[in-house]
Specification:
This protein is α/β, with parallel strands linked by helices. Helix content is 34%, strand content 20%. It has one domain (16-160): Glutaredoxin (3-Layer(aba) Sandwich). It contains six helices and nine strands.
């Protein structure tokens, strides 16, 4: 039996796939690396949210997170925010955030990964652009340079800032990298 079929049995036949555009984003209320509870609903009061699911041991996550931090540094504020959702414990997540210079909040998915499962994750990193109405407007699985550029342009638009490239001249960045 394939792992997918085996997991399907546990999930009552639910097909595993990341939630697509147009779906309502399931609620998120989790503790951050310092134990403070944070919620998607609270973050959405200020504007759209980019929710990025990751695992510290994932090479594609390690590659992607510094670009997400650039997006956070340029655009996060009163009209846009980011939430990282880690599939690791608080200590490992804190160390990962320090190592990669991540300043956006990193929330800890609880035992059994209930939030990751609600979002249909099969791979990390997986990112969801969520509108203020709670609708998923974009889903990206793995690293996609064009998808990250699109998210940065959306962040620039909602914050009223001029768009800026996430990628520096001369940086060697592949178009995609599977998660």
């Amino acid at each position: 039996m394939s792992v997918k079929n085996h997991l399907r049995g546990f999930l009552g036949g639910k097909k595993l796939r990341a939630l697509p555009s147009g779906e309502t984003a399931p609620p998120i209320t989790l503790a951050d690396t310092n134990g403070k509870r944070r919620s998607l609903a609270e973050a959405l009061q200020n504007g759209p949210v980019l929710a990025a699911f990751f695992k510290v041991s994932c090479p594609t996550c390690q590659f992607t997170m510094p670009f997400l931090e650039r997006l956070h540094q340029r655009y996060s504020g009163p009209k846009f925010s980011m939430l990282g959702i880690s599939q690791d414990d608080a200590r490992d997540t804190r160390e990962f955030c320090e190592e990669y210079g991540l300043q956006f909040p990193a929330l800890i998915d609880e035992h059994g990964f209930p939030v990751s499962n609600e979002y249909g994750l099969t791979n990390v990193p997986t990112m969801f652009w969520i509108s203020t109405e709670g609708q998923i407007q974009q889903t990206t699985v793995g690293f996609s340079k064009s998808d990250l550029e699109k998210m940065a342009a959306q962040a620039a638009q909602v914050t009223g800032q001029p768009p800026a490239s996430l990628f520096k001249p001369g940086e060697v960045v592949p178009e995609t990298k599977p998660g």
